[in-house]
Specification:
Blueprint lengths: L7 H24 L4 H18 L1 H7 L3 H9 L1 H15 L5 H19 L8 H15 L8
Length: 144
């Protein structure tokens, strides 16, 4: 294996690459939209769909500090992660939107990876995560 990869980090990066490519695709699609609310909706929907589709991979890597460090140490990957945060937090980036974004990222990733939910059908998981995520990510002025 080390014939094709120089390090363990290269191997791990190759394993998570499909997820990272999905994140970049979500950013490209969202940024093509005319207003922030539409961009945010596409980012939320795309990230939920991605988490469900890659839930087995998420179970192996979610919350792994080495993976987080690896992603943040790669400039192009860090740029995608930073841009996703900006899409979710909006132009104001106030404390509430930053906290909601953190809850969203952690909650969706952790839920997709949760072995206690392995028996939940992908469609049911997707629907619940999307509904809950939209509630969490509502701007403060929209809260009922």
């Amino acid at each position: 294996m080390y014939y094709q990869f120089q390090s363990k980090e290269d191997i791990a990066l190759e394993v998570v690459r499909p997820t990272l490519e999905d994140m970049a695709r979500i950013v490209r699609i969202a940024e093509a939209l005319p207003d922030w609310e539409a961009r945010r909706a596409v980012a939320i929907s795309g990230l939920v769909e991605m988490a469900v589709r890659h839930r087995r991979l998420a179970a192996m890597f979610h919350g792994d500090p080495a993976i987080d460090h690896m992603v943040m140490s790669q400039p192009e990957l860090k740029a995608v992660a930073d841009r996703l945060r900006e899409l979710l937090e909006g132009p104001q980036r106030d404390p509430r939107s930053r906290i909601a974004s953190s809850v969203f990222f952690t909650g969706v990733g952790r839920t997709a990876a949760d072995p206690q939910l392995a028996d939940v059908d992908d469609a049911d998981l997707h629907a619940a995560l999307l509904d809950l995520s939209n509630t969490i990510m509502q701007p403060a002025t929209e809260k009922v």
